[in-house]
Design brief:
The complex is a heterodimer. In chain A, about 0% of the residues lie in helices and about 50% in strands. Chain A is mostly beta strands. In chain B, about 0% of the residues lie in helices and about 60% in strands. The chains are: A mainly beta, B mainly beta.
Chain lengths: ~110, ~110
């Protein structure tokens, strides 16, 4: 049982480039989330999807877009990467009565 | 206000004894208080959690103490071991528009020396 799988694990981008971070869960969870983790800042919510077909902004959505492709998959897109988006990105999922389950993250560096 | 304040930022302890990490919250609507453990290169993993109608919950060497009137909760690690070296995050959560909304503390980096 893989849980939450994120790809890629590492990525280096130049300023202005675009990329999509992929996330898939196999726990049949309705809700999925994208967080970023920066030193001393804890985890901050970028976007979430309460259920298939819906997405909503979190605390720090600027510069990002998301797609809930189906119940299993939730992707995060950076259209024009900036150095301020250098971070570790975590995808998570949860069921109605379950806590959040996190993937192992994507470490992104924007130069 | 949705903040959760966590302290200390870092903690270095010797093997054995007890380690304590504290969190305080403001929103009385929070209904679930999990602690997450994160090892380097990994995502946070649920360690232990408590609901506000309980004052204490223990799982192995880990105990949550919860003070509803003070809006504070803490993680106690008994006899810490080098394998407990990790970053610990407290969180407070509520159900919001069909999803569980988490507010995380800023994290405590715990180092347990042999």
């Amino acid at each position: 049982n893989a849980g939450v799988t994120q790809t890629p694990k590492f990525q280096v981008l130049k300023t202005g480039q675009s990329m999509t971070l992929q996330c898939a869960q196999d726990m049949n969870h309705n809700s999925m989330y994208w967080y970023r983790q920066d030193p001393g800042m804890g985890l901050r919510l970028i976007y979430y999807s309460a259920s298939e077909g819906t997405t909503d902004k979190g605390e720090v959505p600027n510069g990002y877009n998301v797609s809930r492709l189906n119940k299993r998959e939730f992707s995060l897109r950076l259209e024009s990467a900036a150095p301020s988006q250098t971070s570790v990105y975590f995808c998570a999922s949860s069921g109605h009565a379950s806590p959040l389950h996190f993937g192992n993250g994507t470490r992104l560096t924007v130069t | 206000q949705q903040q959760v304040k966590q302290s200390p930022q870092s903690l270095i302890v010797q093997k054995g004894g007890i380690s304590i990490i504290n969190c305080a919250y403001e929103n009385t609507a929070f209904d679930y208080f999990p602690w997450y453990q994160q090892f380097p290169g990994k995502g946070p993993a649920l360690l232990i959690a408590i609901r506000p109608d309980v004052s204490e919950k223990k799982e192995g060497r880990f105990t949550i103490s919860f003070n509803k009137s003070a809006k504070q909760f803490s993680l106690h690690i008994m006899d810490p071991q080098p394998g407990d070296t990790a970053t610990y995050f407290c969180a407070a959560t509520i159900m919001d528009s069909g999803r569980r909304a988490l507010t995380f503390g800023s994290g405590t980096r715990l180092q347990v020396q042999p």
